[in-house]
Amino acid sequence: MTSVWFDTALLSDGWAHSVRVSHDDGVVTAIETGVAIGPDEERGAIGVPGLGNLHSHAFQRGMAGLAERRGRESDDFWSWRRVMYQFVDRLNPEDVEAIAALAYAEMLESGFTRVGEFHYLHHDRDGAPYADPAELAARIAAAAAATGMGLTLLPVFYAHSGFGGAEPRPEQRRFVNTTDAYAALVEASRGAVKDLADGVVGVAPHSLRAATPEELALITPLAAGGPVHIHIAEQAREVDDCVAWSGRRPVEWLLDHAEVDACWCLVHATHLTEAEIDRLARGSAVVGLCPITEANLGDGLFPAARFVGAGGRFGVGSDSNVLIDAAEELRLLEYGQRLSRRARNVLASGQRPSVGGTLFCAALAGGAQALGVGKGGIRVGAAADLVSLDAGCAAFLGRDGDALLDGWLFAARGGAVDGVWRRGRKVVAEGRHVRKVELVQAFARTLDRVLRA
Ligand code: ZN
């Protein structure tokens, strides 16, 4: 049994001072408050629980910043997707592992301790299946093992290029599966994560445009009680195409045709009518918001004020990984609302006036639910996923309680996180992942080859 001692820490029942978190075999076994630090005890200043990153496409970290040049036409999500398809065409399994490992190290450095990897790259460069259908899923698991990142692996079902079962396009050949091949992939993915201490496998129909209703009904039960994630209503054109196909908007269609329960995570859900917002908020599913990517891609603004006001559940994801920063995802979520509503402190609640406290705790609970690991937070029986903030950072000086979260989310630069323990093992020290140097070297070798190809 070992422990970490914090000057102050955010526990599942609120802030406390002089806190000892004891853990054994990666799991919190005891929490004491008002106790003095022991000799040789590991120490953090401001302790917060690790946050779940509920939506990532790790390989896209390798093309971060490469799609920021204006093309001849007006650029949008679809022109970004062409750049992404060109990049993905060049990746071999070693590249996928190297890029994912660096992305996961960066996530840990920003305070994310578990990732929902929405993994849609399955086949070889010519579209032929690998001998092991989980070849690339195993590379994702290896990246998680190398960095210590908690993994919820979400193998993606992708079969069509548009609503109504349209044939997939040649550039989608590395993603597509039949429902039978997909069932084998889910099974093989369970094998790929079996050596991780707390790996979780769910299922992920890519979107309503990539899976037909019949396919959706066949693959959803494969989750077997685990998470079910889907991209939905990210693009205005996607909404129009869905209406043309079914007479219904995507979220409306899904809520009408699937048992959308607490296992579900609806990623983006950007374009909603007021009726859809209220229906979604009344249910138990989590909405997966990715504010940095949604801004980068020009997707639109999620109606967070109404949704959160109606009690809706949400978490955040780094999605395209164009920039990996847990605090900035939450900051941008609030700032989008302020800019569009010309108001301040939009996403605080009556019970919790601190915007930072409200956003962090909501995203903590939503992220843990969506990733299939309970409620999240520092509590006995949960994984010892602990983050310490740098008490010397100006944004924390003279603050206590939720004001520390307000300082982190709104007033700190990157680097406010100085330590991270994943399952009790220190993986980030002095703000850097303990294997950062070698991970950057492997990433650099991959990029050097892939970008010259
Ligand atoms: Zn996505």
Write a structural description.
The structure is a single chain. With 453 residues, the chain is an alpha/beta fold. It has 2 domains: 2-48 and 380-438, Urease, subunit C, domain 1 (Roll); 50-370, Metal-dependent hydrolases (TIM Barrel, Alpha-Beta Barrel), CATH 3.20.20. The protein has 14 helices and 17 strands. The strands form 3 sheets. Strands 3-2-1-4-14-15-16-17 form an 8-stranded mixed beta sheet. Strand 15 and strand 16 form a beta hairpin. Helix 2 crosses helix 14. The longest helix is centred in the first third of the chain and has 18 residues, at 93-110. The protein is globular, with a radius of gyration of 21 Å. Zinc ion (ZN) is lined by residues 55, 57, 118, 231, 267, 319.
Question: What are the defining features of this structure?
Answer:
17 strands; alpha/beta; binds zinc ion; 14 helices; five-stranded parallel β-sheet; eight-stranded mixed β-sheet; TIM Barrel
Q: Give average pLDDT, whole number.
A: 96
Q: Per CATH, what is the topology of the largest domain?
A: TIM Barrel
Query: Do you know the CATH architecture of the largest domain?
Result: Alpha-Beta Barrel
CATH-defined superfamily of the largest domain:
Metal-dependent hydrolases
Shape: globular
Question: What quaternary form is this?
Answer: single chain
Strand order of the largest sheet: 3-2-1-4-14-15-16-17
Can you count the beta strands?
17
Structural class category: alpha/beta
CATH class of the largest domain: Alpha Beta
Q: Percent of residues in helical segments?
A: 25-40%
List of distinct ligands in this structure: zinc ion
N-to-C CA distance: 50 Å
How large is the count of helical segments? 14
Largest sheet: 8 strands, mixed
Radius of gyration: 21 Å
Number of domains: 2
Strand content: 15-25%
Give start-end ranges of low-pLDDT stretches. Answer: none
